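name: query_chain
kind: protein
chains: 1
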Amino acid sequence: MMRSLLFVPGDSERKMEKAAASGADALILDLEDSVAPSRKAEARRMVASYLAGADRSDQAPKLIVRINALDTGLTDDDLAAVVAGAPDAILLPKAGSGADLQDLGARIAVEEAEAGLPDGGIRVHALMTETAGGMLAASSFASKSARLSALAWGAEDLAAAIGAASNKDEEGRYTDVFRMARSLTILAAAHADVDAIDTVFTDFRDAGGLEAECRAAVRDGFSGKMAIHPDQVGVINMAFTPAPADVERAVRILALFAAAGPDAGVLSLDGKMIDRPHLRQAERVARRAGLEPGALPGQD
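structure:
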């Protein structure tokens, strides 16, 4: 499970190399907003080169490429340049519905076949709240693509799409539409059984504000958070790493249910009743802690 996902401009070799040492769980190599139109072709070349030479060991960050949206006319050129490098995932901005995921999946499949890569090996992440249509079609993102592994939300593009002067009020809190976007992302991700990724915190100098937003995201069910600066990575990783006591309790719950067998219902732990919702929460905590399935009781 990815806690921190750091955006990196795709047209800067220096920043991509620096980001690899940031400690982020994933790098989002950006071909979209951070790259000027005149630099798109050069960014594709740089990202393709980086993918070809990057460390792909288990300890290295996962590599995700944010392509340009489907309605820009740039998507196919983006995919043709980067799919052969076998990124871990493609991030689709301004996703409008589950049909967009099907469309993207089909395009990736063509490029995978031409590159001799296994079909379905490249996953899809989707930014689902950057347009009004994406928000209104939130439920459609479930069961539309086996490639889908995460749904994320963004506030900046949505503000532009709906004509909002700001996405926050005078107290620095998201206004109603953007709180709804955040909530829809959590619900849609749960409905699709994929990770929910929180949006960026734009003031990279405000570590306290970032930490507070991370804590709220963990509380509400997000699996990780996107970052715009390497200095944010440590704060995000700390917030999304479960406390040792929570991990120990989760492992005990998993062990109890494993010992009780597949038909187990209500069990007892430390004098308190636990049931299937506790089991699902324990599984989430174990994944956030980075425990491999084979290391968990009853998961081998």
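note: The first strand starts at residue 4 and ends at 9.
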